[in-house]
Amino acid sequence: MDAAVKAALVASRGTGIVSLAGLDLPAIPARVRGHLPRRLTVLSLAHNPRLGVLADGDPAVLLGPSGPTASTPPRKSTVGGGKKGGGGKGGGGGRGTVTPPTGTPGGNLRRVILTDCGLKALPETIAVWTQLRALDVAENRLTALPDVFAAFPQLETLTAANNALTDLPASLTTCGRLVTVDVSRNALGPALPTVLCDLQSVVTLRVASNGLKSLPEALVGAAALEVLDVADNDLPSVPPVLLRCCPQLVSVDVAGNPAADHIHLSEGWEWLAERAAAAAQRTALYRLEGGD
Predict the structure, then answer these.
(1) If residue 104 lies in a helix (H) or strand (E), which one and from where to where?
(2) Which end of the chain has the smaller Cβ count within 10 Å, N or C?
(3) Which contacts qualify for 270-275: CB closer than 8 Å, 24 or more apart?
């Protein structure tokens, strides 16, 4: 095992946090599997662009020392989704799960950082990360995400910016605690995936630079939405119903769109402006009362 990997594993003892970030690893050494903390809560493999792939049996999937072996693979889910097969832009779709093996360190993971790992795909076996709160797969080459998000009921943050995603999995709608979604700089356009309209707990949605040509009025279904970033698309306008009827919406970034030239004249803009002003006032009062 590489000395840098050994040092990282030694540093993780007693913390539940393993960072193998920036080590220029071409693969995760198989022996890592036997040295992972039993209660691994945070894993970072960021900035290892030579990794390229996480296989079902890869130690990075964290099946752990007491998890299944090659002769007893985990049960996979069936993938639903897809634009024409009932996925993010067409509704419906399968919501498979994978049963995590007993004693799996991955079953305790709260945060996984796979930024800039050269990944073209994620295996469905990541569904063993059943306690996941935050998943960061930005700056890879992903064209799809596995439709296993039903396995992540605690998920709060999904960051998948700077990939090549053309759709999003239908099972995202099962993540009832999801607060922040960043899928900027992908290829989701020209239409916004309909699954994003059904994320009722999301507060911040970033879909900048996706070649979007329109926004659906159905986005009002994202009832908790406060911040909408649609910058650098090709939007001629923003549906007035979004500005008027999203009760929590206080910020819409349309910079770099044709709509930016006249958004302040749009029907419903005054509603957004009033909510934004009220939110700013509440923030100012909170700071005064808190003494910060």
Answers:
(1) none
(2) C
(3) 271/243, 271/244, 272/243, 272/244, 275/247, 275/248, 275/249, 275/250
- Give the distance, in angstroms, between the CA of residue 136 and the centroid of all CA atoms in the same chain: 6
Structure-block tokens of residue 172: 């995202």
Nearest-angstrom CA–CA distance, 81 and 87:
3
Residue 119 CA to residue 27 CA, distance in Å, equals 12
Closest CA to 91 of 201, 175, 168, 186: 168
Q: Report residue 252: phi and psi, to 5°.
A: -130, 115
- State the sign of the Cα–Cα–Cα–Cα dihedral 57, 59, 61, 66: positive
Residue 291 pLDDT grade (very low, low, confident, very high; cuts 50, 70, 90)? low
Spell out the residues 6+ positions from residue 235 whose beta carbon is closer than 8 angstroms to its own: 212, 213, 214, 215, 254, 257, 258, 259
Measured CA to CA, the distance from residue 206 to residue 229 in angstroms comes to 5
Token pair for 194: 């309909």
Spatial contact of 130 and 110, defined as CB atoms under 8 Å apart: no
- In the three-class reduction of DSSP (H, G, I as helix; E, B as strand; rest coil), residue 139 is classed as coil
Measure the CA angle with vertex 208, ends 274 and 223; round to 5°: 45
From the centroid of its chain, how far is CA 17?
Answer: 20
Total-model pTM: 0.83
Confidence of residue 155 (pLDDT cuts 50, 70, 90): very high
The confidence band for 256, taking pLDDT boundaries of 50, 70 and 90, is: very high
What pLDDT sits at residue 70?
34
For residue 168, what are its two tokens?
Answer: 């999003």
